[in-house]
Amino acid sequence: MRPLFSMTLALILVLGAGPGLARADGLRDHKQINDGLTTIAIADMIRKKCPTISARMITAYGYMRSLKKIANDAGYSDAEIEAFVTDKREKARVEGAAREWLQSQGVTLSRPDSYCVAGRSEIDRNSQIGVLLRSK
Question: Which residues of 13-38 are buried (b: 16+ CB within 10 A; e: fewer)?
């Protein structure tokens, strides 16, 4: 399962990020960035597993741009952000946090219908996750 990290990478490349590592691992400790990436991963997992829910891709793109701006404003370069969001360990860590959250909401990872229940609940609540999703 590959949450919207591929879309995040595309965003970064479109915005002109170059290669480099520097202090990208410091982003791991930035709560707002990590919460945002986890939100994106949760929404992506829901839309991939639930056939009656899709992503609001333009909204997701805007949300990712806002996360990138937060990281830039915190002093991280585009290259550092790219290194962070493309790091396999970081992807696995964020995906793990997303799965834990989903399970805490009653999702059974092997049952697509349970993703639908969680997704509809988030859409109804108009949460940040729900804002990234829509019912088909």
Answer: eeeebeeeeeebeebeebeebbebbb
Residue 96 inside a domain? The answer is yes
**Residues forming beta bridges with residue 134, ordered by sequence position:** 54
Angle between helices 78-86 and 57-73 (to 10 degrees): 120
| Segment 108-136, tens digit of pLDDT | 999 999 999 999 999 999 999 999 999 99
Task: Give tens-digit pLDDT for 42-94.
Answer: 999 999 999 999 999 999 999 999 999 999 999 999 988 988 888 999 999 99
Instruction: Judge whether 12 and 24 are in contact, CB under 8 Å.
Output: no
- Grouping H, G, I as helix, E, B as strand and the rest as coil, residue 55 is strand
Predicted TM-score of the model (pTM): 0.82
Residue 33 lies in a domain: yes
Domain membership of residue 88 (yes or no) is yes
- Domain membership flag for residue 18: no
- The answer to whether 7 and 13 are in contact (CB under 8 A) is no
Residue 38's closest CA among 79, 86, 74, 4? 4
